[in-house]
Structure formats: C-alpha cells, structure tokens
C-alpha cells in the first residue's frame, strides 16, 4: 500500500510540473492583443502631455500621432478569421498535450499492475543472508560466511568451510589465506595442507612453487595416501624437467587409487601430455636423468661439478636451437640457480621472456617461477 501512495504522489508532482506551464501559456496568449492596444493608448496620452508642456514640437507630435495611429489600425485590421483559427488551434494543441501527460501515468500504471510485482517485498542483503541456506545461491552463502568471519575472525571452523569454496571459485589468494587461518586456529591436517598447496599453485598460474611443495609434503607426512598432494608433487617433478620421475609417480598412483577416484582422469591426462612425441623422441631439451645422477655420485667434487656444468651448458645450447620449449627454459633457470649462478639464471629468464613475448602467459609463468626460486628479474 505504501508503494502505491508514494507512486501516486510522485506521478501527481510530475504531471503538475508539465500542466501548469501549459495553463499559464494559454492565459498569456489570450491577453496578448489587448495588452498591445493598451500600450499604444498610453503612448498617445504621454505624447499629448508632452505637447501640452511644450516638450515636443507640434510637427513632431503630429508625426508621432500618425505613426501610433497606423500601428493601432494594423492591430485592429488584422484578419479576424486568422485569429479565430489560431486560437482554436492553440487550444487544441494544449488539449492534446494535457491528454498525453495524463495518459502516461495511467498507461504505465496499468502495465505495471499486469507485468510488474508491486506486492513483492524488498530484499536487503541482511534479509537474504538470514534466509534458509538451502534457498540461497553460492554467492549469498559466501557473503554470509564472510560476514560471519568478519565478526568472528577466530572461528577456525568457518575458515575451514570457506577455504575449499574459494578454491572452487578460483579465488586462489583468498583460499590460501583461509587455509592458513584454519591451520593456525584449528590445527594441521592433510586436507588443509593439500588445499593450501593447491591454492598457492593456482595463484602462481599452475606453477608448483617451493611453498606449494612444502605444503604438499606436509600433507603426505600426515597422510601418505593423500592423492592431491602426490599428484601435485609429480607435477612439480615434470615442471623441473624430471619427466621420467613424474611419470613413474603418476603410474604408481594409478595402481593404488580406487576405480572411482576423480584423480584418475587428471593423472591419465597428465600422462598423455607427458608422452607427447616431442618428449618421447628426445627432441625437447632435457636435464640429467637418474643414470646421470648415479654416474656423478662416484666422481670427485671437481669432476662432478664439471659434469653438471656441461649438462647445463648442453641444455642452454639446445634451447638456443629450440627456443619454444617453455619447460626447458624453467629447467635451465632452476639449474643455474642451484649452481649459484644468479646472473646466468637471470639472463636465461630474460631470453625466455623475449622468445614468448613480455605480455604472454608463458612470460608470466617464467616470472612467477623465478620468484619462487628467489630470483628477481632485475637486481
């Protein structure tokens, strides 16, 4: 009811704002001719007084009277038919305008009563957050949880519930913060550590950084069967160029996962990607494999360092010949960092970015990966 009262008042005010000027215009138009005649008569009276006081010469007074008389005659001799037709036309236009002004609210009200929802109650955010959770959208549930945690930041259970929701919404930074709060307040768990690692990797564009690896390893210490942690640690091996070890890890997971595990699809996809012809044929740049490591273990420190430097130099040469190998560039940057050659690592990073373009997704991944190794693009 209150809605209709407010609507009626607003409609009335808007209609009067249009109608009142129309009415004033009608009155002014009707009196226009009489006003002109009155002005001419006043001019004649003023002329007679000036002539009587000697302020104007008789000849000039006569000429002025003749001019005013001509104006009065033109006013009186104007076409009566034209006046008659003009006035009704003006009245008709005002009538049409008045009807149009009144028709707008009447038509709009009629349409709204049929198509609108005047009886629908308002739904402020506080009321929407207070309704049954089963009737709420995901955004409303998240807003409710955020409002609760803003008022109760020490509710570890609340952070624990919100963190995986953030993760599914791809709000990775928020998810990482929520997982850290849940671990701090409610203690460590494999699920929380694995979720934290996934959030950190997601925020880094899919790169499993050292921080993410620490979280996944902590999850495996608490639960050696945690599939998420095992999967992402294998991804980290693949990103470091240790493809054979990553494949072995994924294949081992396939042998232990139950048939209905959702991780089977992700592992099969990762294995298919790692088995592309370029990798299988050895065309992609590779780092030292397990056999190389075993051979190096029996060498003296000087020979071992020389062997490693040779392998890294070979990797560098292959990348100069085949520069479109994004994983090869990350392996090269990591190798130089491990060897303590920060300048060479930074040079490799710049070359990798130049190959793919500074604004490319690969360049962003390179920069994030280097930062995870403690390497800044410029120093």
Automatic annotation (TrEMBL):
Its keywords, alphabetically, are:
Cytochrome c-type biogenesis, Repeat, TPR repeat
**Residue ranges of region Disordered?**
278-302
Its main subcellular localisation, reduced to a broad class, is: other
Q: Where are the TPR repeats?
A: 156-189
Question: Ranges of Low complexity compositional bias?
Answer: 279-300
Coiled-coil regions in this chain?
A: none
Q: Which residues form the Cytochrome c-type biogenesis protein H TPR domain?
A: 135-262
Residues in the signal sequence: none
| Keyword Disulfide bond set for record | no
InterPro entries reported in the protein's UniProt record: C-type_cytochrome_biogenesis (IPR051263), Cyt_c_biogenesis_CcmI (IPR017560), TPR-like_helical_dom_sf (IPR011990), TPR_CcmH_CycH (IPR056413), TPR_rpt (IPR019734)
Where found, per UniProt? Cell envelope
| Name this polypeptide is given | C-type cytochrome biogenesis protein CcmI
Protein species of origin: Mesorhizobium opportunistum
Q: What is the lineage of its organism?
A: Bacteria, Pseudomonadati, Pseudomonadota, Alphaproteobacteria, Hyphomicrobiales
Q: What gene, per UniProt, encodes this protein?
A: ccmI
């Amino acid at each position: 009811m209150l809605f209709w009262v407010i609507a009626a008042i607003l409609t009335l005010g808007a209609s009067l704002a249009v109608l009142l000027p129309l009415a004033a215009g009608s009155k002014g138009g009707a009196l226009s001719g009489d006003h002109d005649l009155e002005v001419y008569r006043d001019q004649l009276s003023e002329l007679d007084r000036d002539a009587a006081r000697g302020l104007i010469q008789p000849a000039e007074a006569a000429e002025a009277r003749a001019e005013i008389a001509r104006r009065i005659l033109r006013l009186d001799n104007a076409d009566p038919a034209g006046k008659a037709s003009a006035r009704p036309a003006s009245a008709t236009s005002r009538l049409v305008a008045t009807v149009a002004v009144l028709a707008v609210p009447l038509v709009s009200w009629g349409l709204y009563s049929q198509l609108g929802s005047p009886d629908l109650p308002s739904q402020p955010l506080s009321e929407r957050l207070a309704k049954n959770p089963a009737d709420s959208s995901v955004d409303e549930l998240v807003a409710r949880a955020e409002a609760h945690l803003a008022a109760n930041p020490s509710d570890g259970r609340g952070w624990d519930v919100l963190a995986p929701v953030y993760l599914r919404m791809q709000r990775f930074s928020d998810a990482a913060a929520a997982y850290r709060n849940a671990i701090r307040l409610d203690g460590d768990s494999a699920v929380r550590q694995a979720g934290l690692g996934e959030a950190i990797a997601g925020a880094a564009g899919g790169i499993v950084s050292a921080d993410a690896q620490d979280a996944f390893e902590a999850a495996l210490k608490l639960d050696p069967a945690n599939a998420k942690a095992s999967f992402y640690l294998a991804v980290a091996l693949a990103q470091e160029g240790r493809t054979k070890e990553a494949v072995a890890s994924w294949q081992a997971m396939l042998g232990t996962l139950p048939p209905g595990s959702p991780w089977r699809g992700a592992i099969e996809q990762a294995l298919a990607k790692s088995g592309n012809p370029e990798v299988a044929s050895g065309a992609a740049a590779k780092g030292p494999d397990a056999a190389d490591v075993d051979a190096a273990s029996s060498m003296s420190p000087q020979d071992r360092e020389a062997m490693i430097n040779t392998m890294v130099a070979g990797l560098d040469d292959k990348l100069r010949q085949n520069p479109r190998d994004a994983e090869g560039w990350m392996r090269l940057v990591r190798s130089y960092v491990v060897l303590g050659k920060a300048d060479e690592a930074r040079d490799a990073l710049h070359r990798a970015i130049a190959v793919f373009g500074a604004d490319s997704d690969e360049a962003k991944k390179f920069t994030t990966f280097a930062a995870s190794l403690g390497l800044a693009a410029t120093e």
